């Protein structure tokens, strides 16, 4: 701060408080709605104070599901989301680590070609080539499976680039010291490079976990069996029904549960998250 | 391309290490992209029995289609709306945080979490808030004399999806603006203060120009976000309606391909979208290169 | 412990040859220092011995075994790097133990070896710490310890002291020398610092532009530099070089037209162009008639024990004939003075004007013992 201007400081705080309130407002309303009974949404206005049905609502959606919408219990959808998010995060980190290792620490024919092939995936988000990608997955018999949910989303140029940039900053002398110590490439990777990448791995994990958890279009397409529904896509099916038969209390309870895990991850790992976000764009 | 001074000599190992990523890339990225490209030159008859090569007919039809023009136009409005709303809000918040000292961390924590909320979930929450019968925002708007109904009004529907999509993106932009502001040398701002420039003047003559690389970068990122990552917002709320008024390009690809089963047109649209992504990515990389030279 | 033989080793990057055929025979237990300016190829040579660079031509033997195609880990060597290259995520103990673990030694064996090395290097209290919690000198010791525990055939040290401050460098220099003597392991040490080179080496290798210009004991290199490059590189301030032409019995003709006739050396045949080299510490002020050279003093540096008088040969114009003389600290001399100087007995060096090579045929068999006394002063300045 350059000079002391009490009015301007006060204004800054007011702006920030207003910002925090506006950002939090939809979530507040969702939480309140999830504590009310179904009749509160028949007419009039969305309630703004908590009601007595919290436990009922959450217990009902967690374990028995909303029968009218054909959606399975949320507990199952949350599990599916968790499996998908972890598979995508861990899988992406694993294959990106080893491919970045190959590109940085070896020289071999077609290295440039491999580099550009990976680079190109940056330019092809799944939404743009959705129809043929769906066809490939269907042909491979991967519909309604965890593999179908996660593997097509595992290749990532961003993660590979992040690790490549990081590996390039690791001093050459460390590699040389390891070679003199008798370590081959795999030992070096496991004993030196991997431990040194811990912070980057954590940062990327946060970003990728969120990415995986929040997938919507892809699970919508590759799952027809409710047993493989993920929670983020499941909400839509519930909300559709909610328009006719208002079950907003249950939909909003699902909304709260659907955003809880990624929000917790971001808040708990904020330091890594900020680092991961800012660095993955470099 | 950069490598290390010291490298390992194995001949087979690097290929083995690259195999998983390359295999997935080829099977799920390159092959489908190639299929989309091929399909965009083909036409299937109504029953899917015969396929024939039609050169650029799919593209010609596409660019002559008023619905596609509409979709392009909708995408432009939607992207710019999202970019402007989320960038402006984030910049104001970042400037405010830059003035606070001790509370900065707390405010940051309270502002960044929406990044973790799925676009679909954000869409549903705002859909609920704007619900014409019981929603709280239409109630407030009615008191102000505006009759809100996103089920019938194109303008209302567009505002709804822009607000929902922007809400989620503010935290991302906020973090980058905070980092950008922190990178501005303190001495410059102090020098301007000594020269007698007040906070407003300092912002427009020093801070904003120095922030312009960050702003430009975020502009591109936000346009990409609005064009491709907001599919879920649209699908979970308006489903492109009413009357095509929120039918952005990615949604149309999906709708024509999966619901309309018009594969040739959908493929041609995919190819157009890929071209747009490539242009935006190149712009983004140009910017990064320039930043590296500072 | 074993000997190292470097036989006609060459290194090329693409078409550019950077090392032009180097031969060095290193005896078992010998401490060899490779010294030279940056870019002379000294590090490249060391890295070829280590196996971190491929050998374009020639062979390198360690302990009688050709190692050209062996991985660094298979060569039975240990290396100390300029920035130490300690593994940042490992404790001091694990840093030292890593190579032993890979070699498959038993836990007890590893512990015993690390303990022994840590005791020698006074690192016992720090074994559980991470490198970032150590001071520069301690990190240097860990790097040494990592080399020591392996009990290798040879230590390879690449500028290991250049990241330390001046005081610590002197201390670690002594420690390294004592350590090497106590374990008796062959050592190959690369530095650009001539003081380190002179004090540490059993034998010096002076490298320049990819060629080993002289390989000899520090004293011999100082007393009889093989080339003008070596003469200028070893010793501080650098040896004075004056172009001369042999003038028969009158001696050597300088650029100012006068002749000089150094005592106790042989002179080249009349008419031959040569370079006369005289170290600043090998000239002394005398009364006019006995002078070999006259110096017009332009600047004076007082160092306490010594005083350096910079200037040029009297009567020489246009930039040539620069001359420095080292005088006792008590000497009163001011810019503008003209000093009459005599070259000490046998302390003139003659080099070929074209190639810069020492005119060895003119050397007298015995080297005066007086040079030894001055050595320490010369190199420590």
UniProtKB/TrEMBL annotation, chain A:
Transmembrane segments: 7-33, 82-106, 113-131, 143-163, 192-213, 250-274
InterPro entries reported in the protein's UniProt record: MetI-like, MetI-like_sf
Subcellular localization: Cell inner membrane; Cell membrane
Record keywords: Cell inner membrane, Cell membrane, Membrane, Transmembrane, Transmembrane helix, Transport
Regions annotated as coiled coil: none
Purpose: Part of the ABC transporter complex UgpBAEC involved in sn-glycerol-3-phosphate (G3P) import. Probably responsible for the translocation of the substrate across the membrane.
Quaternary assembly: The complex is composed of two ATP-binding proteins (UgpC), two transmembrane proteins (UgpA and UgpE) and a solute-binding protein (UgpB).
Protein family (similarity comment): Belongs to the binding-protein-dependent transport system permease family.
Name the UniProt record assigns to this protein: sn-glycerol-3-phosphate transport system permease protein UgpE
Species classification: Bacteria, Pseudomonadati, Pseudomonadota, Alphaproteobacteria, Hyphomicrobiales
UniProtKB/TrEMBL annotation, chain B:
Membrane-topology annotation of the record: Multi-pass membrane protein
Pfam families cross-referenced by the UniProt entry: BPD_transp_1 (PF00528)
Subcellular location, record wording: Cell inner membrane; Cell membrane
ABC transmembrane type-1 domain ranges (all copies): 72-284
This protein's UniProt keywords: Cell inner membrane, Cell membrane, Membrane, Transmembrane, Transmembrane helix, Transport
Gene3D superfamilies documented for this protein: MetI-like
Main location class: membrane
Top-level lineage group: Bacteria
Transmembrane segments: 12-31, 72-97, 109-129, 174-194, 206-228, 267-288
Family statement drawn from the similarity comment of this UniProt entry: Belongs to the binding-protein-dependent transport system permease family.
Subunit structure: The complex is composed of two ATP-binding proteins (UgpC), two transmembrane proteins (UgpA and UgpE) and a solute-binding protein (UgpB).
Job description of the protein: Part of the ABC transporter complex UgpBAEC involved in sn-glycerol-3-phosphate (G3P) import. Probably responsible for the translocation of the substrate across the membrane.
Protein name: sn-glycerol-3-phosphate transport system permease protein UgpA
Source organism of this protein record: Chelativorans salis
From TrEMBL, chain C:
Keywords for the protein's UniProt record, in alphabetical order: ATP-binding, Cell inner membrane, Cell membrane, Membrane, Nucleotide-binding, Sugar transport, Translocase, Transport
Signal peptide: none
ABC transporter domain boundaries: 4-234
Residue intervals passing through the bilayer: none
Keyword Oxidoreductase among record annotations: no
Keyword Heme attached: no
Xref: SMART domains: AAA
Gene3D superfamilies per UniProt: 2.40.50.100, Nucleic acid-binding proteins (2.40.50.140), P-loop containing nucleotide triphosphate hydrolases (3.40.50.300)
InterPro entries according to UniProt: AAA+_ATPase (IPR003593), ABC_transporter-like_ATP-bd (IPR003439), ABC_transporter-like_CS (IPR017871), ABC_transpr_MalK-like (IPR015855), ABC_transpr_MalK/UgpC-like (IPR047641), Mo/tungstate-bd_C_term_dom (IPR008995), NA-bd_OB-fold (IPR012340), OB_MalK-like (IPR040582)
Entry protein name: Sn-glycerol-3-phosphate import ATP-binding protein UgpC
Species per Swiss-Prot/TrEMBL record: Chelativorans salis
